[in-house]
Amino acid sequence: MSRKSLPAAALLVIVVVAAVAVIVWINRLNAPPVIDMTNVIFEEDYQLTGALDGDAVVFGTRITLDANSIVNGDLSLVGETVVISGVINGDLAIVASDIQFSGAHISGDTVMMGNKIAINGRFDGDFSVTGESITIEPTSAFNADTNVCGDVLSDPLVFVCQDETVFAPLEALIRLRSDGLSLDSAITPPAVIAVGALMTGIMAGITSLSVAVFPRQFSRIEDAVRTTPRRLFGVGLAVFGLGIGLTLALVVLIAMLPPVGFVLIPIYLAVGLGLLALMISGWVTLALVIGERVIGRAPHTSRSHRGVPPMLIAAVGSVILSAVLTLLALLPFGSVITAITLAGVTAAGVGGAMLTRLGTRPLSRATFVQG
Description:
This protein is of the alpha/beta class. The chain has helices at 6-30, 171-179, 189-213, 215-227, 229-256, 258-263, 265-297, 310-329, 334-355, and strands at 40-42, 45-48, 51-53, 56-65, 70-72, 75-84, 87-88, 92-95, 98-101, 104-106, 110-119, 121-123, 127-136, 141-142, 146-153.
């Protein structure tokens, strides 16, 4: 494709994307919504002082239903602190850290999970609760079955945990409440070493194969890295920043303009494949540099390392690089340290691959100077 045809091609892509977005938008206007978001509420500090008709779901940091509030339907609450003093003519489900009932009246079934729970109200339907500390005032009234499962109960002789299977859908949250958020049990040193060994073999194979199939291209990228490493390092960091920026932009588009965001996903994937090719090229280039350094300094090879096959040099460098990253992954916050280190050490190679167009041309070309 010539440079003169690039603007026309870009304009065609823009027109096609805009047309598809308009068609999707028109279809969405005419089609019924997949999910009824009428009573789905997101507020940091939500307070209900009157009537709310229909089923509702509320997400917030603090959720308050005062004494004059009436909910005519089922209600689900997810937040940090929930205070209920009104009437709910339907079922109630709550997931929160701190839950307080003060003179509330629930006509339907109640299911909730929390840490600290204080109950004072009337419950006409089945009542099921699980928490660390549960306090039930003597003035509370329960007109159906009760199932109270907690570590600390105000009256364990009256309220007992009859059936924990009721909370099976909340099992993961209950375990998180009890054990806290910890990845130590999942990411253990043996698991890190096993994954590291697997990735070492995979990357060594990819590196050796890449050097064998594209020897001239990677030779140009390596020469570029050795010539201007600082410049290429900056270019590589810019490429990584571009990838992060495009990802964030796509997430925002999907959240704010779903039709446009979903239409752009194929373009994002195509750009992502290009960035992946640049990252692999950076890895292979760095492996070549490390392999030549190591083999060049090894005994009996300092004078004859030029005769060593490039595939072997690349494989040795890749194994060393993978081993170092695996050791870094064993440290506290190892995943973050490994990601930052990987981006830093491969940035120059990524920049070299970018400026040489994946090694299809040298970094610097001969320039004709008149006179």
